[in-house]
Amino acid sequence: MFNTSHEVTTSNSRSAELEREKRLRMLSDADRDIIRLANDPLFPRWLEQIRAIGGCAHPIYLSGSTVTRDALTGELISSYSTAGEPGERLAVRCRNRRASVCEPCSYLHAGDTYQLIRAGLSGGKNVPGAVRNQPRLFVTLTAPSFGSVHRFLDGERCRPRRDGGECEHGRPVGCGLVHAENDTALGRPLCADCYDHVAHVLWHAHAGRLWDRFTTAVRRHLASAAGIPRSKLRDHLVVSFAKVAEYQKRAAIHFHGVVRLDGPAGPGDPSPDWATAQLLTDAVHTAAQSANVRVPGSDAYGTELLAFGTQLAVRPIWSFADDEGPTDDAVAAYVAKYVSKGTAETGAGLDYRVTSLDDIHAAVVTSHVGALMATCWRLGGLPELERLRLRSWAHTLGYRGHILTKSRRYSTTYTALREERAEYRRGDTDPTDSPAVVTDSNWRYVGSGYTAGAALVAAGIAEDHVMSRQLAREAIEDEGRGWEL
Question: Three-state secondary structure along 59-126?
Fold first, then answer.
């Protein structure tokens, strides 16, 4: 009797286990992985790690330890090791600036960029507040024309031509359409065969050098106007820059930059009386017209003299909105907005490198962008252009510079902002900055990314962060409307 009952119980248990396995097999890989994570005793700690990095889409995992001791006595002050962490590793942010790659990290990067640019305009982050009294300009420098493209003119016709006409390839040289702002034709050449793809790619490849020539020319003009040698200009003033690169609809880079004049001691030190905003404006106009880079000649493309385009915007930056022109906050927000955009988001390339022409042909891009990428690949095979590494940068259409750059004395740095944020999270009791302590750290890279289920959980955490920010913005807006009433 007892044996029979025991056999029935065992049979029921096996049936239940088989039924459970059957139900699990019906679940997706991601669902099964979530169940595995939730059953792990260390799941709450893993969840805490992912929340701490804001649901980063592609975290990096480190394994190691940090030990802090008193420098004189050798007494242990604090220690941390990943030995007790899930998988014996710690998740840290990937810090990718592109929203298309990691939205949580791009949001953080955009915030740091805002603080970096704003500190150079209004002070803060160890930059004196007196910096807002210096001559400051917001400058936009564009690429030259490489051929006629379709454009948005807010209700006006694209390129009207009274006499019509066709190019040598039999295509219309004008366009009488009124394009909508989201028209997919915007930025594409009227005739792809007439468009100078070679000059476009070479301009991108030398845009960094062209910017350097521009800044040098600004300093040269200021020195000449003051009647002092160029080598002695730093004894009288310092010219500081910060710029962001942005792709236009035609897939050509243009630069938005802040230009500021300081005294020889740097930010907060008044510039000389003769170094006015008008003089700086004249210097920028002259430099933009004179800066150029000559590309060595080649039988494949001839000779190219690269310069900035004729479209130039120079506006003074004001501390408050009472004056005409952008304010400190508006400029900082504008730069931060574009620094997190990748080439794929702007439709001007890809966010990953290509390794062959087949990759370019398979890429989901416009025919115009595809032609520019193919031009990069073709020119990249020329020995005389090998130093430009055009094939390595075909996905960005030959542009290989940083999206945001600044002169050393403009303001703070990304590193300083990250360290400040880390110190804030640790609290004021952290002893590692004291000269009386010694810290030994031993860390190594052990992996990256998520499993299928973990990726879903992280995405949910990232969405919660987005919702929290949205609710906070709405609360501020509601408070503002209440004040107006």
Answer: CEEEEEEEEEEECCCCCEEEEEEHHHCHHHCEEECCCCCCCCCCHHHHHHHHHHHHHHHHHHHHCECC
CA distance 445 to 267: 39
Which stretches of 182-230 are assigned E, i.e. beta strand? none
CB atoms under 10 Å from CB of 286, counted, come to 17
Q: What angle do CA 99, 335, 391 make, to 5 degrees?
A: 60
| Encoded tokens for 145 | 């024309």
CB 112 within 8 A of CB 241: no
Rg, the chain, Cα only: 29
Query: Which pair of tokens denotes residue 248?
Result: 């236009």
Indicate if the alpha-carbon torsion angle 212, 215, 217, 223 is positive or negative: negative
Asked whether 175 and 183 are in contact (CB, 8 A), the reply is no
Provide φ and ψ at 468, rounded to 5°.
-65, -40
Among 146, 156, 148, which Cα is nearest to 173's?
148
Q: CA–CA separation, 420 vs 433, rounded Å?
A: 12
Between 296-305, 348-357, 391-400, the lowest mean confidence (pLDDT) is in 296-305
- CB-based contact 152:165 (threshold 8 Å): no
Give the span between the Cα atoms of 49 and 82, in whole angstroms: 12
Alpha carbon distance 284, 454 (integer Å): 52
What amino acid occupies position 307? A
The CA-to-CA distance between both ends of the chain, in Å, stands at: 84
* Contact partners, residue 9, CB within 8 Å, separation at least 6: none
Dihedrals phi, psi of 425, to nearest 5 degrees:
-70, -35
- pTM across the whole model: 0.81
Residue 214 phi/psi, 5-degree rounding, is: -65, -50
- Closest alpha carbon to 239 in 212, 263, 257: 263
- Phi then psi for residue 156, to 5 deg, are -100, 160
What is the per-residue pLDDT for 48? 94
Q: Which residues of 261-272 are buried (b: 16+ CB within 10 A; e: fewer)?
A: bbbeeebbeebe
Both structure tokens of 465: 């962060």
Q: Categorize the per-residue pLDDT at 94 as very low, low, confident or very high, splitting at 50, 70 and 90.
A: very high
